[in-house]
Amino acid sequence: MSPKNVIFKKMAKDKSVGVYMAKRDFVDRVDSVEPVDGVILVDPEVLKGKKAFVQLSCTFRYGREDMDVMGIAFRREIYIAIRQVYPPIQDREQSTHTKMQGKLLRKLGDNAFPFFFEFPDNLPCSVGLQPGPNDSGKQCVVEFEVKAFSAESQEAKVRKRSTVHLMIRKLQYAPENSGTAPSVKTSREFVMSDKPLHLEASLDKEIYYHGEPINVCVNVTNSSNKNVKNIIVSVDQVATVVLYSNDSYVRAVALEESGDAVAAGASLKKVYTLTPLLVCNRERRGIALDGKLKHEDTNLASSSIVKEGVLKEVLGILVSYRVMVKLIIGGILGSSEVGVELPLKLMHPKPDLASWKRRWCLRSSSAPT
């Protein structure tokens, strides 16, 4: 999360426009998303009659920037919204939505103007697939950006020196109410065996926080005449690129090959503990990560929570997690497997909602009637 009481500032090279924002992380609560707001500072002497605009965009990129050839860009704009901030179309007081904007306007003076965007409820969260050690440049990623620029008009060509970019993130946090703790069981019958093998696995809850150990309770009752040679438990990340290919990347982000054996007629009940962490998966290509700001570290991607009725095809990359429990069964003709799958959610805990409300309360509550 962006630190409190810090202002993020970035100026265009020609000093015509600058962006000031109090935060760069915006929370998607599924039923609503925090609005994006800030202040644009302009220099009328540098503008020389030009206008100043601010843009919020969501882009899905599926190739490096240097791969853009023959006018074909390996990216897709999912969402773009543009506002003219100078000359102002609305009164400054009417355009000011938060207390932080009001403080910035008083500090920066008459050439500062507020902006405010509301996210549509069908946009993806910031997420990307980790490149391999030898890859360079941006790979497959969903990213958000606030851009301020000066130009003769919204459609006119914009000079790079008159443009400033500030990356932001759209994040989701764990819901307050968790679902039922996952549990699953299965049985397998074998030829030449009168009785089956029973496998049961369960988790102690549905939602886990990043860095939290995941306890998997495994119960094996082997009434068959086969021997269980090994028990393998893994936490798998499933990243599905839904926007253009529907490809799925399944990676075990935590794995334990226990070597535990269960002889014919025996049983085993054991809790296996796994902790999926990015530090153990940094060199692995295709691992989905939460959106990253420059010079900041990130973590394994959080589970995607999709609002009911939203088309998944526009969400870029969807991420889910599951625990897989596999029994390796020995046999004369070779080994076989018996397995079960347990879905879970891996997310960040929800920050203090009360402090968010204090910081981002609408000015309408104190505006004169």
TrEMBL record:
<dbReference type="GO" id="GO:0001750">
    <property type="term" value="C:photoreceptor outer segment"/>
</dbReference>
<dbReference type="InterPro" id="IPR014753">
    <property type="entry name" value="Arrestin_N"/>
</dbReference>
<comment type="similarity">
    <text>Belongs to the arrestin family.</text>
</comment>
<dbReference type="GO" id="GO:0007165">
    <property type="term" value="P:signal transduction"/>
</dbReference>
<feature type="domain" description="Arrestin C-terminal-like">
    <location>
        <begin position="193"/>
        <end position="351"/>
    </location>
</feature>
<dbReference type="InterPro" id="IPR011022">
    <property type="entry name" value="Arrestin_C-like"/>
</dbReference>
<dbReference type="GO" id="GO:0001917">
    <property type="term" value="C:photoreceptor inner segment"/>
</dbReference>
<dbReference type="GO" id="GO:0002031">
    <property type="term" value="P:G protein-coupled receptor internalization"/>
</dbReference>
<dbReference type="Pfam" id="PF02752">
    <property type="entry name" value="Arrestin_C"/>
</dbReference>
<dbReference type="InterPro" id="IPR014756">
    <property type="entry name" value="Ig_E-set"/>
</dbReference>
<dbReference type="GO" id="GO:0007399">
    <property type="term" value="P:nervous system development"/>
</dbReference>
<dbReference type="InterPro" id="IPR011021">
    <property type="entry name" value="Arrestin-like_N"/>
</dbReference>
<dbReference type="Pfam" id="PF00339">
    <property type="entry name" value="Arrestin_N"/>
</dbReference>
<dbReference type="GO" id="GO:0001664">
    <property type="term" value="F:G protein-coupled receptor binding"/>
</dbReference>
<protein>
    <recommendedName>
        <fullName>S-arrestin</fullName>
    </recommendedName>
</protein>
<dbReference type="InterPro" id="IPR017864">
    <property type="entry name" value="Arrestin_CS"/>
</dbReference>
<dbReference type="InterPro" id="IPR000698">
    <property type="entry name" value="Arrestin"/>
</dbReference>
<dbReference type="InterPro" id="IPR014752">
    <property type="entry name" value="Arrestin-like_C"/>
</dbReference>
